[in-house]
Amino acid sequence: MEIGRLKYDVLFKKVFHKKHLLKAFLNTVLKQELSSPITDISYESTDFIIEGKSVLVQKSKHDVIDVFCITQQKERILIELQKGYNKRALPRFLDYQCRNYSSQFRTGSDYTVVVPCYSICWFFDMKPPHKKVKETITLSSNCKKTDWHFKWKIIALYPQNIPKSHLEQQKIDQLEEWLLLDIIEDMEISQEIQQFFNTQEVKEAFETLDLSELSEEQLRRMMFEEEITKGYSDLYEEKIREAEEKTEKEQKLAIAKNMLSQKMSIKIIAQLTRLNKDEITVLIKE
C-alpha cells in the first residue's frame, strides 16, 4: 500500500487543515523563533492572492495556507505555509511574505502596530547548496544596537537534506520527523520508521496520507495536478527567461546609446553589444 506526498494540494491540505496537526508542526518549525508556543490558530483567506490576474498566481494560490496564531503569551502572529519545487519559487515566496506584512496596513493606519509575520516554505525534491534542513531568512541590521527590529522571517525547509545516517541510526529529530512526510512513499516503510518517532501528530499525519482513504475523484485530481505542475513550472521559468532577456536587451541598448553619444561607429557598437545595425540605427533617430 502506498502513501501520497505533500506535494499534492489535496494531501497538503488534508494534513494541515487538521488544526492540531498544523499547530504541532508550526510549534516545531518555529520553536527557536517564538518566545512561547502557539496555543490557538485560525485559518485565513488568501484574498490578495486570489485577486491576482496572472494564471501563475491563480495556480499557486492553492499551494498556500494562511493562519493567524495566538501564543501562550497572547502574542498574535501571522504565518503562511506554502510549498515549492525549485529555486524559481524563491521570488514568489518573498513576494507573498512582503504582501502578508504590508496587507496589514491601510491608509491612516498606525504603522507601529504590526503583527509578526513568518513564511514557512516547504521545498520538494530541491537540494540547496548547503546541508541544512532549515534555512532562516530575516530582516537584520549590521549594527549591534539599532532601532530596526522587525519580526519578519522566511523559513525554508529542505527534506532532501535529511542525512541518510540519521535514518540508518534511527536518530531523527522532531523537525526531521515532519519532513519525512515528503520522502517516505511506502506504507510499510512508513509504519516501520514511525516506531522510533516521538511525535504522535507526525504518526497521525502519515496515516492521513494513506491513499486508500481517497475517493477516485480525489486520486484523479492528484494525477491531473502532477501532469500540469510541470507545465506551470515551465511557463514560470519561460516568463523569467523572457524578463531576463528583456532586461539584458535594455542594458545593451543603453550601452549602445552611450557609445553613439561618444561618436563610435555603428559597426564597432554592433560588434561589442551584439545588436544588429537596424536596432542601433533606431537609437540615432531617438
Notes on the protein architecture:
46% of the residues lie in helices and 15% in strands. It has 286 residues and is α/β, with parallel strands linked by helices. The protein has two domains: 205 residues, no CATH class; 72 residues, no CATH class. It has a six-stranded mixed β-sheet with strand order 1-2-3-4-6-5, sandwiched between helices. It is extended, with a radius of gyration of 24 Å. It starts with 8 loop residues before the first helix and ends with a helix. About 6% of the residues have low confidence.
Secondary-structure content class: alpha/beta
Structurally, the number of domains stands at 2
| Major beta-sheet overview | 6 strands, mixed
Order of helices and strands: HHEHHEEHEEEHHHHHHH
Helix coverage percent of residues? Answer: 40-55%
Record the strand order, biggest sheet.
Answer: 1-2-3-4-6-5
**Quick check: average pLDDT?**
80
Q: Give the uncertain stretches in residue-range form.
A: 46-62
Radius of gyration: 24 Å
Categorize the overall geometry. extended
- Give the beta-strand count: 6
> Helix count, per DSSP?
12
The end-to-end distance, rounded to whole angstroms, is 68 Å
Q: Tell me which oligomeric state these chains represent.
A: single chain
Share of residues in strands? 5-15%
